[in-house]
C-alpha cells in the first residue's frame, strides 16, 4: 500500500505526555507519540531507555503517573490489559508466552473461549487460523506441538495468536533477538503484508539495520525521553546511533601486533556427544592461539561452539587429544583450575551461567576466587576486601548500580556483562574465552566490550572469540576459523576472507575457505 | 488489581510482614473459635496463658520448641541449597535409635563419654540417612523429595522392628519400647521440676552457628550460590556436588540431633511415638522463618506455643485442640502471602489517572 505523502493515514494510537517513575528513576518522561494505520513505527533505544516500560503502560501492565492514551479516538482505561486487548492492541513478547505441551491450534485459541463451556468450535477456529496463516505467509502446522517448533515458528504462532484476536495494533518487543538472519527476513516480509492490511505495528529494537529495513518511522528513546522521531527514509544509521547513545561512536580499530608465545593449544581434541550441555561436539580440532592474537570462531549455532567453550571453561575434558593452556598440559581440569592458570572466561549466557541473579554485586565478583587467601581465611569470607574490590570494579568498569550490595538481577544486560568483564579481566589473564560477548547488548555496551577485549589483547592476552555475529568477528579478529559439525577449519588471516566465503564455509563448503590459503 | 514488583523491599517491611501475617492468622481463626460459641478473647487469653503465661507453661513451650528448632534448621539449611530434604522425620528417628543404643551402654564407653557419644552418634546417623538420597540426586538425578520421603517410612519400620526385637526392654511389660539410657547419658535439666533440658541450648547454639555460617563463611556463600543458580555456581568453579554433600551432612545431622536430644533430654527411652511429626513440622517452621536460622528460633517457639497453648485451652473451653493445627497452617499461608506482598505491591486498576 503506497500512500501519497500528502494524505497521511489516520492516527490509530496516540500517547500524550506519558510519565512513569520508579522511585528516583524516571523511566518515561512526558512521552507523546502518534501511530498511524498501516505504518511500522520502530522504537529504538538502549537497554534501560524506557522502551519496555512504555509498552507495558500501553498494554496496561503498568499505570502511568501522568499522561493518557487514545486508541482509535477512544481513551484507553489505564492499567487494564483487558481493555487494551478489547481495543485491538496485542503484544508479542520477547520471551514467548506459549504452552509447550499444547498444539499450535490450542495455543492460539487458549484464552479466547469461555471456560465454562464444555465444547469449543475447533472446526471454525482451525479454518480461521489456516486462512490467516495463508494470507500472511505464516506457515505453521496447526496440529504440531509447540514444544517441537523452532524459535522462528514459535514467533509465527505468537503473531497468529494476536491476529486471531483481531489485533489492529501489534507490538513486537525485540522480535529478532532470537531469530537467525533468514528468519528475520521472513518476519519483515510478514510485517509488510500485515501493514498492507491496515495493521499498525510498533517494533521495539536496538538493532540499527533492522530498524532501517523494516520501519516507516522511527522514534528514538534515550534516558526515558523521546529524543527524536524521524521518517526512516530520511535518516541514516549514523544519525540514529548518535541519537540513541547521545554521542558519536567510532568503530573499533585493531592495531596490528606481532603474536607472542602460544597460550592455548588444541591438538586433535575430540569431545564426544553428551559432554557439557550435550549440544554439539568436537571432532579432532587443532587450534593455536598466541599472545596479542584474537582468533574468531564463526559458525551457525549448535555446530560445536558450546563444546569448545565448555572445554576452555574447564567444564568438560577432551575424550581424546591434547589441551595445553598457558604452558600447562591440563589433565584434570576444572573451572577453578582454569581460573588459577590465568584464563578469563566470559560465558555465553549472562543470566544462566554468568551470574547468580539473587546474589549481590560483591558476592558475584568473588565467585571464581572466594577460596583464595585474597577473599577468605580459615573458611571465613573477608567481606571488607570483597566489598572494596567490588567498589574498584564498579568504578573501573563503569558498572551502573547502586553499589556493591545491589542485587545483580536488577542490573541491565550491559552492566551485568561489565560485571563479568570486571570479574575476570582485571586479573591480567593470559587467555580469554569470549563466548558471544555482546549478544543482546546495546550499541554503547557492545563498543565498551570490544574496547576492553582489544585492550586485553594489547596487554598480552590471547583471545578465543566465539560469535554468531559475523560483523563482530570481522571487526576484531586477527584470524578467523569456521566451525561446522564439530570440525574446525584452519584459521585464515582476516584480510584474506570475505563475508561470502565465511557464509559458505559456515554452511559446510570448506573448499571456499581453503582456496585462499 | 495488579502486582508490581518492588525494586528493593525495606528491612522494616521484611520484619513487620511476618508479624502482620501472624496477626491476620489469629484474626482468621477467631471466626472458627467464635463458631464453637466460645468467647474469642477468652480463648486467646487461655491460649496465651497456657503457652507463655507462667514459668511452667513457658518451660513446656520451650521443651516442645527444642526439637522443632533443630528440624526447622535442618530444613532451612537444606532448602537454601535447594536440596529438598523431606526426610527429617526419618533422620530424627535414626538419630534417636543410635542415641538410645549408645546412651544405653550397648558399646563399652567411659561414663563421661556417654552423652557426647549419644548426641554425636545420633547426628551422624541422621547425616548418613541423607547422604544416600543426595548422592543419588547429584550422581543420577534421582528426585530427593521422593527418596527422602519414602525413607521416613523405611526408617520407622526399621525402628519398629528393633523395638520388637533386639532393643526391646525386658522390663517393659511387653510394650514395644527400648530400655532407658543410663542416667549419665541424660541432658541436664535447665529448670527444676520441668522437662526443659539443655537440648534447647544446643539448638540455640546451632541456630547462631548456622547464621554465622550463612553470612560470614565460604560454606554459606557456596550454599547460597548453589541454591540460587547451580549452573552459574558450577561455571564459577564452585564444587556443586561436594557442596550438596556438605549440606546433606549438616541437614541430616541437625535432624538426627533432634532425635538424640529428645532421647537424652525428655524421654530417656525410645518408642514409636517419640515424635508427633517434628520432622514435618520442621518444614513448616523453616518456611515460616523464610529459611533464616534466627527466624527458625522464633518460628519454632511460635509453633510450639500454639500447640502447647491449644492443649491448655481445650481443657478449659469447648474449643478442640485441633485448632492448633489450623492456626499453624493458616499462619503459614498468611506468611507466604505476606512474603509475596513484600516482593510485589498491589496496584488498583482504576487508580491514578490524570
From TrEMBL, chain A:
Coarsely, its chief localization is: membrane
Matching entries from InterPro entries are given as:
AAA+_ATPase, ABC_carbohydrate_import_ATPase, ABC_transporter-like_ATP-bd, ABC_transporter-like_CS, P-loop_NTPase
**Secretion signal span:** none
Q: What is this protein called?
A: Sugar ABC transporter ATP-binding protein
Gene Ontology CC: plasma membrane
SMART domains named among the record's database cross-references: AAA
Q: How does it sit in the membrane?
A: Peripheral membrane protein
Compartments, record wording: Cell membrane
Provide any one GO MF term from the record. Answer: ATP binding
Ranked from the top, the taxonomy reads: Bacteria, Pseudomonadati, Pseudomonadota, Alphaproteobacteria, Rhodospirillales
* Top-rank taxon, per record: Bacteria
Organism this protein belongs to: Skermanella stibiiresistens SB22
Keyword annotations of the record: ATP-binding, Cell membrane, Membrane, Nucleotide-binding, Repeat, Sugar transport, Translocase, Transport
Q: Which SUPFAM superfamilies match?
A: P-loop containing nucleoside triphosphate hydrolases
The UniProt record lists the ABC transporter domain at 13-248, 264-510
TrEMBL record, chain B:
Membrane spanning segments where? 12-35, 90-107, 114-133, 145-163, 196-213, 233-257, 278-310, 322-342
Any single GO CC term annotated in Swiss-Prot or TrEMBL for this entry: plasma membrane
Q: Which InterPro entries match?
A: ABC_transp_permease
This protein's superkingdom? Answer: Bacteria
**Keyword Transmembrane applies:** yes
Does this UniProt record's set of keywords contain ATP-binding? no
Q: What keywords is this UniProt entry annotated with?
A: Cell membrane, Membrane, Transmembrane, Transmembrane helix
Q: What CDD domains would the database entry show?
A: TM_PBP1_transp_TpRbsC_like
Q: Where in the cell is it found?
A: Cell membrane
Assign the protein's first listed, main location to one coarse class: membrane
Membrane protein topology class: Multi-pass membrane protein
Please provide, alphabetically and separated by semicolons, the GO molecular function terms listed in this UniProt record. transmembrane transporter activity
The name this protein goes by in its record: ABC transporter permease
Biological source species: Skermanella stibiiresistens SB22
